[in-house]
Design brief:
390 residues; alpha+beta; 2 domains; 3-stranded antiparallel β-sheet; 20 strands
Length: 390
């Protein structure tokens, strides 16, 4: 039981280190297996399942670990180097894309999952970040992995949009037809040396605007879940940039985050978990399993999905957009709900109804990853970001 309160920078550093430890401990370091460097999708359940997105965030964790002296440069270099070898030589890929979930030891596809464009992109963002930090052969290997991705293959020629998924059994399905977490796809796809897509692919997804409670012209996502406004910003600094149509994606995430917070304030009578220091609806583990919780504006019928569950990573992953509000939420949660804190910092989700607190026992790799990078970006602006170029 904690005997003192924790505030401000000290609490940010505690959550940063806790998130780092997820990637430092839930990793396969057995050099005798095909899956060296793979990182679990979640903990403590399904320990045999890794996700390639977790590996992407894991590269960032190596750099943060070195910079904060939690890990030696030599250890981090070897892990990054050998992990890239796993992806170069031991894991199945199709046109440079990887399966979303793989066995942590064998590196083989699990759950008949999709060949994922967005999770491959998160992995590549992490690999390129490691390449820029370590240089040398790590940079060379990251560049090889990046430039062998055939972005054109994953594009629907009729709509000029990326598909959302592919399996050998079903082929392609879905489309990135409106704004979401996919901005990184256009940056990576257009910049590719070997298999680029035309810049026009950025123009051909819908950018629908809507107001919420005085917050004007939010370009919103289908489900209104906060990770969709965060993931690309973890790697690419859109601050103070505008596209040819005057869209400022950083400012858009600021507005969407403020709207998400206001949505929880507006609905605190309906769900006791919600409030000015208990907000941040995003995909997380709730009482009924992993679900995508969201706020308005959105297109999805969120009232059918929202059950009062809140994820700490929702607000923490938005700390660069709403620093004051995010830090106040972290202080409230840490000092009010001791059960929400465990070995890797804040757990994935909590739910307060009828004066009873439910807390998941799980950690999710991508949720600890977005918390990790966004806290580091806030503490040391631009430190982890790939590029800041028009």
């Amino acid at each position: 039981m904690r005997i003192c309160k924790c505030k401000g920078k000290k609490l940010l550093e505690k959550e940063l280190k806790g998130s780092f430890q997820f990637f430092n401990k839930e990793i396969n370091l057995d050099k005798q297996t095909k899956g060296y460097g793979l990182i679990r999708d979640k903990y403590p359940y399904h320990k045999e399942i890794a996700s390639i997105a977790s590996v992407g965030y894991g590269f960032a964790a190596l750099i943060i670990g070195v910079e904060h002296k939690w890990l030696s440069y030599e250890v981090a270099f070897e892990r990054a180097n050998r992990t890239l070898d796993t992806f170069l030589y031991d894991m199945e890929n199709i046109h440079g894309f990887y399966y979303h979930f793989v066995n942590i030891r064998t590196a083989k596809r699990e759950w008949n999952c999709e060949l994922s464009i967005i999770d491959t992109a998160i992995f590549i963002c992490g690999a390129l970040t490691a390449g820029e930090y370590f240089g040398g052969e790590i940079k060379q290997k990251a560049e090889i992995l990046y430039h062998r991705i055939d972005w054109q293959w994953y594009r629907n020629e009729e709509t000029n949009q990326f598909y959302m998924g592919y399996t050998k059994e079903k082929g392609f399905w879905g489309s990135w037809d409106m704004y979401g977490e996919q901005l990184m796809l256009y940056v990576l796809g257009v910049a590719s040396k070997e298999h680029p897509v035309e810049p026009s692919i950025y123009d051909d997804f819908k950018k629908i605007k809507q107001d919420y409670k005085g917050i004007k012209d939010i370009i919103f996502t289908y489900c209104g879940t906060l990770f969709t406004y965060q993931f690309s910003h973890a790697w690419i600094n859109f601050r103070n940039l505008q596209d040819k149509n005057g869209i400022d994606w950083f400012e858009n995430s600021v507005k969407a985050t403020k709207a998400a917070r206001q949505y929880c304030i507006d609905n605190e009578e309906k769900h006791k978990t919600y409030g000015e220091n208990s907000w941040g609806l995003t995909a997380c583990v709730g009482p009924n399993g992993y679900k995508s919780y969201g706020a308005k504006p959105c297109l999805m019928e969120i009232e059918e999905e929202n059950d009062g569950t809140v994820a700490p990573c929702g607000a923490i992953g938005s700390i660069v957009f709403t620093p004051k509000e995010s830090i106040e939420l972290m202080e409230h949660l840490y000092n009010s709900y001791p059960k929400l804190w465990s070995k890797y910092g804040f757990l994935d989700g909590y739910h307060l109804e009828n004066d009873k607190l439910w807390v998941t026992k799980e950690y999710i790799g991508i949720d600890k990853g977005i918390s990790l990078i966004m806290i580091e970006n806030y503490l040391n602006r631009n430190h982890m970001e790939i590029c800041h170029e028009k």
